[in-house]
Design goal:
Helices cover about 35% and strands about 20% of the residues. The protein is α/β, with parallel strands linked by helices and about 290 residues long. The chain binds adenosine-5'-diphosphate. Its EC number is 2.7.1.60.
């Protein structure tokens, strides 16, 4: 059975055909529509999946935001504005005429990464550092979703009570500081208006402000990992997302984590499935839900 897996992020949309052995047969990507209205997102998704649908038997969606009973609600409207209540499963089932499931993207990615770790790992946490900061927790071999789908939204834990206001409404969330959007929002002077990718490229060239922004993101993430270790006693943390997987970022996070007391340290690994972790996780969860 072939799954049409779809990953909905704040910056990009990806879709792939994944077979039973978890091989990617075809993969497409496009930018998330700038307007982020229901109609715009639906239109983009229709175009993205059109060339893939006839070869699939089911659809598995991994999306940023809270997913409950197949409905997407954006926790940070700045990442997926206008999507307070988007009936994702209903829309995609209608569009493709295929059975469909939907899960949070970081929860899905956590499941894919957990399944690729050694059998002795029963407790792990996945963190995506991308447009936002998302997470997924596997505890005692089980993916935590929560009663309302909120479990693992660790990007909205407190990093700095005097920090910037997050799009979710809280002040000083990890996401408001460490994410791609948070990094870009803090840029000043000649870096103002640059995205995180450009800022990190400038950091590599030795630009002091760019370097400080990269360090601030990595240090915030290291403190989050120490908090996660204290609350879950995980055996490792796996990092994904384009900011998280950028060159030298995990090494920097590990260096900052090394400054925390030993009790709060844990192994920090790069996502084995790289940018496809969400797609693989959704496909795996669909395979388990609809064998
Ligand atoms: P999504 O949030 O849609 O899942 P990504 O994981 O690609 O997408 O994250 C997008 C964010 O990552 C943007 O803020 C972008 O500027 C940033 N980004 C992309 N490539 C890099 C890079 N090489 N270094 C640092 N940041 C990057």
């Amino acid at each position: 059975m072939t799954t049409l897996a779809i990953d909905i992020g704040g910056t990009k949309l990806a879709a792939a055909l994944i077979d039973r052995e978890m091989n990617i047969l075809d993969r497409r990507e496009m930018a998330t529509p700038a307007s982020k209205t229901q109609d715009a997102l639906q239109g983009c998704l229709a175009g993205l999946v059109a060339p893939l649908t006839t070869r699939a038997q089911r659809v598995a969606i991994a999306s940023t935001g809270i997913i409950q009973n197949g409905v997407l609600s954006a926790i940070n409207p700045e990442n997926l504005g206008g999507l307070a209540h988007f009936p994702l499963v209903e829309v995609m089932a209608r569009l493709t005429a295929l059975p469909c499931i939907a899960v949070n993207d970081a929860q899905a990615a956590a499941w894919a990464e957990y399944r690729s770790l050694a059998a002795e790992v029963s407790d792990m946490v996945f963190i995506t550092v991308s447009t936002g900061v998302g997470g997924g927790i596997v505890s005692d071999g089980k993916l935590l979703v929560g009663t309302g789908g909120l479990a693992g939204h660790i990007g909205h834990t407190l990093a700095d009570p005097n920090g910037p206001r997050c799009g979710c409404g809280r002040i000083g969330c990890v996401e408001a500081i460490a994410s791609g959007r948070g990094i870009a929002a803090a840029a000043k002077g000649e870096l103002a208006g640059s995205d995180a990718k450009t800022i990190f490229a400038r950091a590599t060239q030795g630009h002091p402000q760019a370097n400080a922004l990269k360090q601030r993101s990595a240090q915030t993430l290291a403190r989050l990992i120490a908090d996660i270790k204290a609350s879950t006693d995980c055996q490792c943390v796996v990092i994904g997302g384009s900011v998280g997987l950028s060159e030298g970022y995990i090494e920097l996070v590990s260096t900052f984590l090394g400054e925390e007391p030993k009790t709060y340290r844990t192994q920090v690994l790069a996502a084995r499935h790289q940018h496809n972790a969400g797609l693989f996780g959704a496909a795996l969860l669909a395979q388990e839900a609809m064998p």
